[in-house]
Amino acid sequence: MKARRGLSLRGRLAVLYAALLVVSLVLVGAYSYWNIWQLFISSKSSHLRARAKPVIAHWLAATGLADAASRSLDRRPGDVLALARDLTSRDAVAVVLDRGGKVLADGRRLPEEPSPPAPDPQYLRRALAGENEVTYRSRVAGEPVLVLLIPLRPRPGSPEILGVVQLSAPLTDINRILFRHGATLIALLAVILILGTAAGFWLIGVSLKDLRRLLTACDQVSRGNLAQRVHPVGRRDEIGQLTEAFNRMTAQLEAAFASQQRFVANAAHELLTPLTGLRGSLEVLLRGAQDDPAAAGRLLRGMYGELSRLIRLCNQLLGLSRLEGAAHVSRRAIALPEFMEAFRVQCEALAADNPLVVETGPDVTVSADPDLLKQVLLNLLSNALRFSASGTPVTIGWKLLPQAVEIWVSDRGPGMDERTRAHAFEPFYRGKNTPATGEKGAGLGLALARSMVAAHGGRMRIESRPGSGTTVYFTLPLQ
Known about the structure:
- This protein has helices at residues 9-63, 77-87, 121-128, 172-207, 209-222, 238-286, 293-322, 336-351, 370-386, 418-423, 445-455, and strands at residues 93-98, 103-106, 134-140, 143-152, 163-170, 332-335, 356-359, 365-368, 394-401, 404-411, 460-464, 470-477.
- The strands form three sheets. It has a five-stranded antiparallel sheet, sandwiched between helices. The chain has a five-stranded mixed sheet with strand order 7-9-10-12-11. Strands 6-8 form a two-stranded antiparallel sheet.
- With 479 residues, the protein is α+β, with helices and mostly antiparallel strands.
- Strand 11 (460-464) and strand 12 form a beta hairpin.
- The two termini are 63 Å apart.
- Helix 1 (9-63) packs antiparallel against helix 2, helix 8 (336-351) packs parallel to helix 9 (370-386) and helix 9 runs antiparallel to helix 11.
- The protein has three domains: 9-179, PAS domain (Beta-Lactamase, 2-Layer Sandwich), CATH 3.30.450.20; 238-322, Signal transduction histidine kinase, dimerisation/phosphotransfer (DHp) domain (Helix Hairpins, Orthogonal Bundle); 332-477, 2-Layer Sandwich (Heat Shock Protein 90), CATH 3.30.565.10.
């Protein structure tokens, strides 16, 4: 049964982009609609108050209520009705209430004038308490209206409240404008959503083009094509960084597989040589050489030498495998000057005709396995002596680095070319230079030394040029 495929990355990103676009547009549209609504309400409220205040001030002056001894509105029904009618028009209606909240006059006379809503006791109490800006919304026959309450004072700023004028205006015109605005806004948001989603889908596709190429390259690598590379054009984003990491990874894999192939070929060659000698000796013995004691003894001694060589190779290979991690490292504090002096004394016989020079560095203590450190130095020293002419010195020294110490072994031999330097740490690799002693090793010394240093958390490097000798550096952590 064919597996169901889910939505592609491009599709998921496009859906996410569209959802974010919808949320953003809805929030922006709602905020815009609410702001316009508040602007209309504030404008209408300010307009009604600005139109009513001069009328009220003129009425107070004309009726003499500002200076009258008795300021009760109940005793002046005609004057109160005149005020209500002066404030009433085709777009607003006024109602005058006394200090007890009783309606004294309704300014509506004509059918086309709006009907006033019933006073709301909650807001009325606030106006009678002296609050000037009391505005709220109510309904009359199901239609929304804006209601303003204006306290009647004998004079501006007076704490005495004679009553309250209620002005109400229908919001039908505002609702009509907002409905058209909302319809236009919805249509505009729909167009923006469609075009934005389409543009986003296209842009996501363009952005993921290199990712699709990377996917194809990964498929090729999984089929064994380690030479596959992806070359993005001018990308510095995460996909570009991923592509560069992929190229580095495939380059390292290709180099690792090439190194592995060389290792297998070299190991087979190194093992085949003594095995071939053993087979030849056995064939000679089987053909009757065992009847000649002298010949049989020579053959047996040669076979013993080849077996010893095989055992040394196997032990070195096992050492490489054991030193992949730091599990076999028994660290302890080592005073480097004393350790180096003791090592020099022990190796003077090994150096023979080549002076062994120790360049004393700072008095430091390192954290290392003394046996492994001695083995590293012996491997490097034996390499240096093999490639050094008689009488030329071999130098050992060290210097302090941040959080580590760097040790080096230097000779004045023929040096290495660039290719030899690049493969020097590979097992069984041997360069073209012939050792001064004429003796060729198995090519495992530097590989073992680097594994021992890596087990301590250090690094090893080589500086060498043809004809200028070779210096091998390695680092160890400080105590």
